[in-house]
Design goal:
There is one protein chain. By secondary structure, the chain is of the alpha+beta class. Helix content is 62%, strand content 10%. The chain has 12 helices and 5 strands. The protein has a 5-stranded mixed β-sheet, covered by helices on one side. The longest helix has 77 residues.
């Protein structure tokens, strides 16, 4: 199987966050530790002389260790548990639950990013200090400590399940999009082969009397054969699951060709949306795979605008067809809700568009613009198909 035909990896299995998300997680957990633990340490340590700076140093160590809680949660959990117990031993006035807050944050991250067998072991280890909580705070202290630890682990499990569901949706969207591509490629190849048969018959009829016309027919056969081979390569890079025809969830099903963009725009205009359509260059002679991919990307981007672009009143579609590539840009002026992001899996429509572009050797980017609105931009190489 080629690189382009592989399914996206399960995000829960990769155990990775983007650098931006990892920084946000660090700042959030670090701020929580400083506020919830740092303040009691300063208050309780003000009467204990040398213990205060040591406890403050331990708290800062916990905060700094949280920087690596995504990359090495097991090691960070061990470090934060040890330092938290040390803080509690130095300043017994600080509750054990508060002293181990950084460890609980790390337990949540570990539960979300590591296999369950690892997180269960970590949960058991975190429950061991419960005896100290009972010794100091009685049944109430024991209940509070166990509740916070179990809640931290459960929150991580919920996040992991959410990631697994998102990954499953992404895989399903890719499979369905490939099935749709396979059906379309089958139709294109069948049409191309039919034309080749007609041309071959015509060349045979005029081969002796009009050789130049026969040569033209043979050249047309050669061109059609090359195109059909390209389409078959695309078909082999996709796969077709045993599913029935896709349902009726789409807004329209026009013939898949860039020559139908005006009809597509008119369909969107009928909903009250203003559509500006701009073409640069000619789309004649494009490989059918690129033609299909460009049309479907525009179609899905317009569908997303109608469904998800809150407050959008207009959308601009720009199609630039050059000798080397076809560039597609769809930009709306709607507000971008928090759920409409450019991340993989943010929507099945984006997954399908990326799969379309990737199967013809191209690329696609999608995301909100700095001055408002949402953009989908694709680059589809003509030779790459």
């Amino acid at each position: 199987m080629t690189r382009s035909s592989r399914l996206p990896e399960d995000s829960a299995a990769k155990d990775e966050l983007s650098p931006r998300a990892a920084r946000a997680l660090w700042w959030g957990t670090a701020g929580g530790v400083l506020c919830v633990l740092g303040t009691p340490v300063l208050v309780a340590g003000s009467e204990h002389g040398w213990r205060l700076p040591v406890a403050v140093a331990l708290v800062l160590t916990q905060v700094y260790a949280l920087r690596w809680q995504v990359r090495a949660p097991v090691a960070v959990l061990a470090a934060n548990t040890a330092t938290g117990l040390a803080v509690w031993a130095l300043l017994p006035a600080v509750t054990l639950t508060g002293a181990l807050l950084a460890a609980q944050f790390t337990l949540c991250v570990l539960s979300a990013t590591r296999p369950r067998r690892v997180s269960v072991r970590a949960l058991v280890v975190m429950c061991l200090p419960a005896a100290l909580a009972h010794w100091v705070g009685g049944v109430t202290g024991l209940a509070v400590y166990l509740l916070t630890v179990v809640l931290a682990w459960t929150a991580g499990q919920w996040r992991r399940a959410q990631q697994a569901r998102t990954a499953a949706e992404t895989r399903r969207a890719v499979v369905e999009e490939r099935a749709r591509i396979a059906r379309e490629v089958h139709d294109v190849v069948a049409h191309t082969l039919s034309v080749m048969v007609v041309q071959a018959s015509a060349a045979d009829d005029v081969f002796t009397e009009r050789p130049e016309q026969a040569r033209q027919a043979l050249r047309a056969i050669e061109t059609g054969a090359r195109s059909a081979l390209g389409e078959l390569r695309l078909l082999l890079r996709a796969f077709r699951p045993d599913t029935e025809e896709e349902g009726a969830g789409e807004l329209w099903e026009p013939a898949p060709s860039l020559t139908r963009l005006d009809e597509l725009a008119d369909t969107v205009r009928a909903t009250g949306m203003t559509v500006h359509l701009q073409r640069v260059g000619t789309t004649e002679g494009l490989p059918a795979a690129v033609n299909l991919a460009a049309y479907r990307i525009v179609q899905e981007a317009l569908t997303n605008t109608l469904r998800h672009a809150s407050g959008a009143t207009e959308v601009r579609v720009c199609l630039t067809a050059g000798e080397e590539c076809v560039q597609v840009s769809v930009v709306d002026n709607g507000r971008t809700p928090s759920g409409r992001s450019a991340s993989a899996g943010a929507g099945r429509g984006l997954v399908g568009m990326r799969e379309r572009a990737r199967l013809v050797g191209g690329s696609l980017r999608a995301g909100p613009l700095a001055d408002g609105g949402f953009e989908v931009a694709a680059r589809l190489p003509v030779g790459g198909a």
